[in-house]
Predict the 3D structure of the following.
Amino acid sequence: GAGVSQSPRYKVAKRGQDVALRCDPISGHVSLFWYQQALGQGPEFLTYFQNEAQLDKSGLPSDRFFAERPEGSVSTLKIQRTQQEDSAVYLCASSLLTYNEQFFGPGTRLTVL
Amino acid sequence: SQQGEEDPQALSIQEGENATMNCSYKTSINNLQWYRQNSGRGLVHLILIRSNEREKHSGRLRVTLDTSKKSSSLLITASRAADTASYFCATDPYSSASKIIFGSGTRLSIRP
C-alpha cells in the first residue's frame, strides 16, 4: 500500500514568504507527527495530531509556525514570514495509534534565501 | 532539545564486520526505537524495545536496553554496503503522551 507522502519535496522561499507543506498519511492512521530536521541532526518534534485534534504543539519554534489537520487525514504545516533559520527538512510521520511504530514520509527540504 | 545521544557520532567498518552503536537518554521511557535514514531520505523504523524488555532481535539486528543505565545498543551483524546510513535512537518519554525524541545519530559507513 501507499506510504506517507509529502509535497513539495523541495521548496525554495525568499525570506519573508509564507510556505505551506503538505502531508498525506497512511490511510486509517490516527496519529500524525511533524518533525524538523537540521543538517546532520536528528529530527526534532514539532507537533502531534490525533485525528483532527492537535494534542501537542510544544515543539513549534514560534507563532509563525501553524499546523492543521481539519478532517483527520491530510495535514498542512504552514510557516509564515519565513526566516533563514527555518531552512531544514520537514518530516511527517503517521502511526496507527500513538505508541505504535511511526512511518515517515520522504520529507520536504525547505531552503530560505 | 534532544534526549538521546548516540555514540559514536561516526563509524566506518569493513563489509562483513559487526557494527555497534550506543544510545544514552535522560528520562524514564515507555519504549525505545531505532531508525535508519539513508542520505536524503525519510526514516525507516528498525525495531522497538519496550521498557520491560532487555533484548530484542530482528534479522541481523540485535538491540539491548538497560533502563538502570538509561542506555541502549544496536548491533548489526555481518554488515553489508547497503547498511551505510545514519542510525537514530528515539525515546518515548514516560512523561509525554505523544512525542518521541530523537538522538543526533550515528553515521555508519561500510567499506566494500
Observations:
- The CA atoms of residues 68 and 76 of chain A lie 6 Å apart.
